[in-house]
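Trying the structure run again after the queue cleared.
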Amino acid sequence: MNEAKKINIALLGLGTVGTGVYKVLKMQEEEIPRKVGAELAVKKILVRDLKKAALKVDDPSVLTNDWKEILDDESIEIVVEVMGGMEPARTYMMEALAAGKNVVTANKDLMAESGRELFDMAEQSQKDLLFEAAVAGGIPIISPLKQSLAGNHLTEIIGIVNGTTNFILTKMTSEGMEFNEALSLATELGYAEADPTADVEGLDAGRKMAIMASIAFNSRVTFRDVYTEGITRITATDIRYAKEMGCDIKLLGVARNTQEGIEVRVHPMLIPSTHPLASVNDSFNAVFVHGDAVDDAMFYGRGAGEMPTASAVVGDIFEIARNIRFGCNGRISCTCYKELPIKKMEEIESRYFIRMQVEDRYGVLASIASVFGNNCVSIARIVQKEKKNDAAELVVITDKVRERHLNDSLTIFKGMSMVKEIPAVIRVY
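Done. C-alpha cells:
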C-alpha cells in the first residue's frame, strides 16, 4: 500500500462528546488508513481549561485555548465542533467554512436555527458541512434521508428522538411511577440533565424534528415552526387507561408533508401497542419513515451518550476525509430547494384522548356530548371510570377532528360548573 495522505483535524471542545470522538479516533487509529485511504491526526483541540483537559489526552501539546491558532493553520482541513450552544460555536463554524475548512458538528440547536446560513457558507466555499450526530445520536438518519432515500417522495417521519423522556415514560409504564419519581430516577442515573427543561418540555425533540423535516421534505423548517408540548402533565393514570385501550404513551415527533403544507410537531401521543415504535423503550430512539418507493423503514438504536454520538461524528469525519482524497468536497449541500408552507397547528387533524372530572348526576353526559357536537367534534367512545367523592371520571376518545374545533369545546367546558377538571388532553395516533 502506498504511503497514506495525512489529514489534520481540530476538535472544538473536549466535553462528553469531544472526549468520545478522541477515544474513537484512537481506537480506530491502525485501521483508519485502510478505511479512509488517509491518516487522520488530531492536531489541535480547543478547550477552556488546559490543565483539566490535559488529563484526557495522550499529548497535551495539542491543546489550545486560542481559536485563531486553529483558524490560521492552513494544514487543518477538518474542524469538528462538539462544544455545543449557539455562540461562539456559530461564529467558529462560519469562520472555519469561510477559511476553506470542512466542518463536522453535533450541534442540533445551531443546525435547527442557523442551518441556512451555515449551508450557504459551505456552498460558497465548496466545503462539506456534515451533522449526522445532531439527530438521534448514533443512529444513522441524516445520511439516509439525504442519500439512500433520495429517490423517494417522503411523506411522513415519526420518531422517538429524546432518550430522557422515553426513559421516564418507560418507567411510568412498566413500574407505575409518577412523572416526578421517574424524572428523579433519570437524573440519578445520568439520563436527565440538572435542568431537564429542554428534554421534558419537548424542545430537544422539536429541534431534531425541524432538521429532519427540512431534509425529508426539501423545504426549510426551523425550530420556531415546530409545535412542542412536553410530558410533565402525563400521569400514571393516563398510562394505565391507555394500556386498557391497547395503547402506549410516547413523546413523538411527527412531521408530515401534506397538500396543505408541512405539519411538524412534538407532543405525547397514544400509539397502538402493536406499532413498532411502542416497543422502543428506556433511552433508545427510533425514527419511522414513510416514502412512496421504500414504503416504511425504521431506524433504531442509542440516541445519545458519549460513544454513540461519537460514532456518528467520526463517521462524518471519515466521509469528509474520503472526499478530500478525491477532491470532491461540497457534493451535497443544502437540499431545501422548495418553499412549502408550514401548516398551522389549529388546522391539524388528530384523534384525542380526553380525561374529565365531572359532576356525578343525570344530564351531564348529554351536555358534554352536545358541546362536542356543536363544535364539530365527533365522539368515537366514552367510558365512565371510577368515582371520586361527588365526581365521576370520564374518558372520551374522539374521531379525527381539527385542533381548533377541539379547543373551542375545551374553552366552553372551562366555563361549565358541571365540569370540575380536565386533567388530560392527549392526541391519539
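The longest strand covers residues 247-258. Worth checking whether this holds up in the mutant runs.
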